[in-house]
């Protein structure tokens, strides 16, 4: 039902010590929580003791992560750009779920020193396509060197809040539509 809040998981995509990502993710989550149709949770990859090597059997941390992905209706991945891509721990975590991503929408908040994380986002679109997830056309891109931040926290300019709104509008439409679709019939992967 459209009236049931959409469960949105905001994923902190960097686990680097001293990362900017947690501040960006919480900034975004606070703005998303202004919408009463969304139930927003922040998932911090640094809070999962993932194995260094992909194990033969899923570990408790991997299962806990897959359960959290399975419980969400929609996602917003907050990612920095590292060498024109996204961080390796984010890819590792994405790979620990599969069915749980299917037929769900994914939006992006990205940042970097120059391209506002555009390369990272475009590569994530390819990854999520392989997982049968739907990526949102509009995203929120932030330039670490271009005056978009006040001490690690993005500035609330009119343009930025419009970008947040556009992405959340799309995420909500797809989230509701796909939630209903998954209820109506099993997804064919
Ligand atoms: C290994 C490494 C590679 C990076 N490569 C890029 C890059 O290709 N493009 C870019 O815009 N910023 C790049 N940066 C800058 C990061 O986006 C910036 O340091 C950001 O704060 C990293 O996110 P985090 O602090 O949340 O980990 C790089 C940073 C690191 C540590």
Automatic annotation (TrEMBL):
<dbReference type="GO" id="GO:0016491">
    <property type="term" value="F:oxidoreductase activity"/>
</dbReference>
<dbReference type="InterPro" id="IPR029039">
    <property type="entry name" value="Flavoprotein-like_sf"/>
</dbReference>
<protein>
    <submittedName>
        <fullName>NADPH-dependent oxidoreductase</fullName>
    </submittedName>
</protein>
<feature type="domain" description="NADPH-dependent FMN reductase-like">
    <location>
        <begin position="7"/>
        <end position="142"/>
    </location>
</feature>
<dbReference type="GO" id="GO:0010181">
    <property type="term" value="F:FMN binding"/>
</dbReference>
<dbReference type="Pfam" id="PF03358">
    <property type="entry name" value="FMN_red"/>
</dbReference>
<dbReference type="InterPro" id="IPR005025">
    <property type="entry name" value="FMN_Rdtase-like_dom"/>
</dbReference>
<dbReference type="InterPro" id="IPR050712">
    <property type="entry name" value="NAD(P)H-dep_reductase"/>
</dbReference>
<dbReference type="GO" id="GO:0005829">
    <property type="term" value="C:cytosol"/>
</dbReference>
